[in-house]
Design a protein that fits this description.
Elements: H1 2-20, H2 28-45, H3 60-63, H4 69-74, H5 77-87, E1 109-113, E2 117-123, E3 131-137, E4 143-144, E5 151-156
Parallel strand pairs: 1-5
Antiparallel strand pairs: 2-3, 4-5
GO molecular function: metal ion binding
Pfam families: COX5B
InterPro entries: Cyt_c_oxidase_su5b, Cyt_c_oxidase_su5b_sf
């Protein structure tokens, strides 16, 4: 129990240090190395059975629904495109779940894309914790990714001009 209490104290100190440093005041490499060091220290203090799986970092702007004018002004590259799209209410990565009737060979699920192919994931019919991934391409006949699963076909749509791909 002492090791767990120590781990919690370390985590609290690490969070306090991170919150005191203003965003952007240190370089990305230094920030990531600092996070990795703190996580390594935390892992040493954890009792057996706990394992460090990784640290996910993101900008504050990407993690919240509220954007300030400075968020977009200071962002660059793909992050800037994502924030500009978010400000307009557009998901530039088109990550929405597709809600459509079951796709048969005669009436397949139409997956839209501004590209000539798209990656599609479907749950395993016997174990829904497993996802099977496959690609569908423009001009192909309806494709079934798993035996007994539904059929998919790609429907090409015009590029919106803000796809986030380069």
């Amino acid at each position: 129990m002492n090791r767990l209490a120590g781990a919690l104290r370390l985590a609290a100190r690490a969070l306090a240090r991170q919150q005191r440093a203003p965003l952007g005041s240190i370089g990305t490499d230094a920030a990531q190395n600092g996070l990795a060091f703190q996580a390594a220290e935390l892992q040493k203090a954890l009792p057996c059975g706990f394992a460090y799986r990784g640290v996910h970092t993101s900008t504050a702007a990407a993690a919240t629904d509220v954007l300030s004018p400075g968020d977009i002004e200071h962002a660059t590259g793909l992050e800037r495109e994502e924030l500009e799209g978010k400000a307009k209410g557009i998901d530039i990565f088109h990550e929405d779940w597709l809600d459509a009737p079951w796709g048969t060979e005669d009436k397949p699920v139409e997956v839209t894309s501004s590209f000539s192919e798209r990656i599609v994931g479907v749950p395993d019919p016997y174990d829904d914790s497993i996802v099977w991934w496959g690609t569908i391409e423009e001009g192909q006949p309806p494709k079934q990714l798993v035996e007994g699963g539904e059929f998919f076909v790609l429907k090409r749509i015009p590029d919106s001009g803000n796809s986030g791909h380069h």
